[in-house]
Write a structure and sequence with these properties.
Strand order of the largest sheet of chain A: 8-9-7-10-13-12-11
Oligomer: homotetramer
Distance between the termini of chain A: 39 Å
Largest sheet of chain A: 7 strands, mixed
Largest interface: A-C, 47 and 47 residues
Number of helices of chain A: 14
Radius of gyration of chain A: 21 Å
Order of helices and strands of chain A: HEHEHHEHEHHHEHEHEHEHEEHEEEH
């Protein structure tokens, strides 16, 4: 059975499809499906990755790795997500992974990915990392922002930080295609930057005074049990958290500054919303030319994402709901302008676990496997 | 554009697929995709049907019908569910439908379907009806149970009631395959009967004293605005409704009696649960042979659904959550036995809008189109 | 029975208390409890008012008015909220109201209050109005902002608009005490202004560039059935609405300008949150003196509300949850400062139906009845 | 300050009331308020107890005990529930408790109460225990049902088990009044037994075949973080748990058998509902006399609870919602009869944390303090 080491020869975990999508051959034009290891399979990032790779026409899961769940049969851990062959979760040994996988998705706590990435790269396994470990070009900055983790884990992979590509697909598609290591952006940075970057790049907005007021469902806090994320605590409640100092602030600022060509400092305030999935970023900024209208800004944004199948710009006056993108890899953007003040409001919604995490990870995998970024990813929601 | 009358020649609404599933030809082995009209497209039943037919390998939507939304462009009504070509909703004229469709799915209020079905059948369009209009073999019984509707709508189609096939796919597959008219079961009957029928058929349980305690999400009440279904009213609340007299009681009793071979009267009590989707039926009955164990009953149930890809029996001690089937067409069943009393508890979960409505409708469409029942239907949930 | 016309002599609706709070005599020092009419009793504003006046030591409900529910017994309409004597809802006739009530709370749709207020005032009944009809000092402005209502209802009560006191209790206590007519502020203005006004009054913040990003539960949309407020639609979703043009913008600007002493234009964006109750305003503004710290701002805010029992300022670093004020009349405020930019963030939470509506209405009633504003109002939440 | 040892002399924690309910003197007729220790203050049981004793006219909290939170200031732990004097949580030392309290409420994990109860009773402190430790008259049965706890904790207090009174207030009022030790019933037993016992006592129903299908909000699982109770897991889901073997089965059977006068075995199946609070028990049983109507049964039930201010029987055809009793100490009951089968359905709703736990605990405290059972307890909900 593939999962125990002879993956190359055998049945792939995601192989059999009810509706005949064993059409990978057609889609991938004669190439063999790439083999993927999923490490940290029981957390939400891992679960989503497995769900998205189910029946994927060009990628096939050949290794299921987990530390705590190692040795357990998959169906015991997650009876709700049947996997072909009901594999056993394995300890994430680099040699074992390299023996059966071309690519690996790491869904591990911050700090742990940095220990597995170097040996995997050495063994020729390309990596898509869902953690924050390689999101900063500077290891020093990571050590400052993630100080708690940095105190516990010694890292000396500053070169890998420089080499890693920031996996915001619509902005780094070409570099991702040839990368060995991709750092998938955080959920908040994804929703915030998609709407903000086109305006920064065109120089249409003032670079100071940008405010991001973000709202996320509780699955963003992960699957580990925490009192604040209990239904009894988080339901019937909305509250800000991490005001001023949230870690995603510097992550957003890094790419915003790079695209704007000058240092950007902005305000980022996340709020916890009583729902499972979904993330909305409401971004406030000031137009340099107060004569620009919402229609102008919408046209500009549409142009920026003309060739991005996973980003859609809504008509002026239609405001996005997170429900419209749930369980899809789409981002919906909408803009509004207050003509009194020249204030621009950019609203962006994503599913925090898909476009905000595992789905964007699969986009990166697709590119690294030579496929179109959107291959196999859902874009139409089940509603309601 | 297909949707406005020349459907036969042109682009189908569900044609273009991101990931290359325009592989219908492969799957359906040379046959042309069947053309489907969806009538009542803006309600939840219609929306789900459209979502499920999106990228379907053997069925293609060629007509979008609605009374109130007639003349409106689809994207205005439902910006969250993009359809190729952004069609205009049309008045459900039988001639217009017959001109472009082989099959029709009706998602209309009770009583209205019965007005559209006869003219559609006359024009050679086969019908899958999501309402209760053809669920009873006796028109008289329908008129008693749906007395309010019967007072407003004159029906004289008793023969069609007799002809119509009850679309509980796992129990009527052969008859559905050749039917002109299929009445898709209600959500509660589907979840209740799937667990109950095998025991009745085998004569393993007493036919009196059966109790069904059911729990449903609020989408079961439809999309029309009602005070009781407001979030402010239905959230943070659970309550029974329709105690004793709920209409689904007689619908369940009809098939239960038929399968048992003797008249069955049972207790059915639905409860409204503060969630969008999902339906759980907890069924209590008494074993004739008190020596039977939960393992015995599980084995029997597994045998009954061995060839049913959309029904799965869980191991003893694993109890199903509605979350495990959300947005899939699967039913999960589990049984437990109290050895003290010989009481059997059968638990069944479905997504009320998929296996409990539109998904089962698509299963019927598939069979009527010569496909496997499960073709194109989702079976793996996004979790959480 | 009081409710049918002889209220003055008989048992009051809110009279009997389980725990002996028929101690109004003690509290109100010898005076007789004031008699209150509640008009629009079945909506959320009316329901909350009745709940808050239950066992109130100085106010007693003597008239229950409603247009649509007129003639119906209370327990049929709202079996969950028992009222002494189970009164019949009456048509809101001014003479009938004046015969039994000293004060009236109007919880009616915008535009309708303005038709009932003049005859009530003429008959000597003081009015607390929960609608927007008297929130603007200028009738012309009301007619612009509430243009839809203004087209249907002719108003010529510009003098009453000027006379009416804006019932933001902590800022207008003295004027409310002697008012004939009080316009209770909207829920968003209440939460936004409580945090903002002290900084404007002290001149500590720049008057332009203020941004209010607000989040509300769905009960803010009222009890009338609307599709967008169905649980199936609003659950598992967060979305902005009324971007740029929301009516509460001008209401906030009116008082903000008055307190600041100069015209203020600000950005106000509400968001719908999947919960029943609760409202959070996250207010972003810029400090004039960038050297001010969060501690400084907290101290200032504490000083401003030192004598306000319903407003509490949290320690720096403790951010308020709407859950902490649910079903209480308290507002919790918290401030944070980004020393990099001099940005001040003021967070305020209230229960939209209590401090944001009916509770603030009862504060006004209390003052008009010669009581302390907080008399009889809950300040401690049931948690969770 | 009371909380640090000199409680007898000083200000009580629950003393100062905003609205002048320092009317205890009137209510308790010249007696001094009883002093109460709350042990396990940070869990939901403890929090609710503190909330309910806030402004209580005859009981005053003088000791706050907790193991893990010992030494911490209350406001740090629970900023949302202000307590007068902001006391420090203390280690639950029996001598310290006895020095300042007449009565103690224990809200501790099963097994732990049994270690604190004997020393408290020896020191003259009467105890209301919210755990299951003293709910069985037989220690042996407790050790069987709570086998996990029994393996870790040695108990030799069989006499105390016999002495303890089962605190189902409406059925044991007289014995509670004079008890030293009261075991507050579980939430499920409370809701189930209130509806069932009158019928068993009158011999109106068959004693076999009783089925209880119960539904509870997630706060019933406590405040300790567990994966299954995360909002991301429990939201949008309903599922049975503890099928057949749930511990509350034997607790229900014990009192049911005692009241019926013969051994009762019944079926109890709990379900987890995606809401914070509320518990519904739907009880199915068979009438001995099939001629009895729902009206007959309602009359009988009303008679049984004529003098119980916290239990109300709804009219036939009005079915209770948990929302109608949220944050109150009321139980609402409703019955329906299927004349075809003589099946009786008894529906009962409570707030699991109030009448199902802390509120019933306060009823017991009240009785033990010589007060009316309902003293100071809320009976009217905030709706919605």
């Amino acid at each position: 059975m593939a999962i125990t080491g002879t993956a190359i020869t055998g049945t792939a975990l995601t192989g059999t499809a009810l509706t005949g999508t064993a059409v990978a051959g057609t889609v991938v034009a004669g190439t063999v499906a790439k083999r993927v290891a999923v490490i940290g399979a029981s957390g939400y990032g891992g679960l989503q990755t497995l769900r998205l790779l189910h029946q994927h026409p060009g990628l096939t899961v050949t290794f299921l790795g987990g530390e705590r769940s190692s040795g357990k049969r998959w169906s015991e851990l997650n009876p709700f997500l049947p996997l072909p062959g009901d594999p056993v979760v394995q300890s994430p040994d680099p040699d074992a992974i390299a023996a059966v996988a071309d690519l690996a998705v790491l869904s591990l706590p911050n700090g742990l990915a940095a220990q597995l990435v170097p040996p995997l790269l050495e063994r020729g396994v390309k990596v898509v990392d869902l953690s924050a470990d390689y999101r900063y070009r500077s290891l020093t900055q990571w050590q400052e922002v993630y100080a708690t983790e940095a105190r516990q884990i010694h890292r000396s992979d500053a070169e890998l930080c420089l080499e890693a590509v920031y996996g915001l697909v619509e902005w780094e598609e070409e570099r991702i295609r040839t990368a060995r290591l991709v750092a998938v952006p955080g959920c908040f940075p994804t929703a915030s930057l998609l709407g903000l970057l086109p305006f920064l790049k065109q120089g249409l907005i003032e670079s100071n005074g940008i405010i991001i007021d973000a709202k996320t469902g509780t699955s963003g806090g992960g699957r580990a049990a925490k009192e604040a994320l209990l239904l009894a605590e988080a339901s019937e409640a909305v509250a800000p958290y991490g005001v001023i100092g949230h870690r995603h602030t510097s992550e957003i600022e890094q790419l915003a500054s790079q695209v704007a060509g000058s240092p950007i400092q902005l305000q980022f305030t996340p709020h916890l919303i009583p729902m499972v999935r979904g993330l909305l970023a409401t971004v406030y900024c000031r137009l340099r030319d107060p004569g620009l209208t919402a229609d102008d800004c919408t046209t500009m944004l549409e142009a920026a994402y003309r060739h991005a199948p996973c980003v859609e710009v809504l008509p002026v006056g239609t405001y996005p709901s997170t429900k419209w993108v749930r369980q899809t890899n789409r981002a919906l953007l909408s803009v509004q302008v207050d003509s009194r003040s020249g204030q621009l409001i950019v609203m962006g919604v994503i599913d925090n676990l898909v476009k905000g995490q595992a789905g964007q990870g699969v986009q990166c995998l697709n590119l690294m496997a030579g496929l179109d970024a959107a291959t196999g990813l859902p874009t139409v929601p089940f509603y309601p």
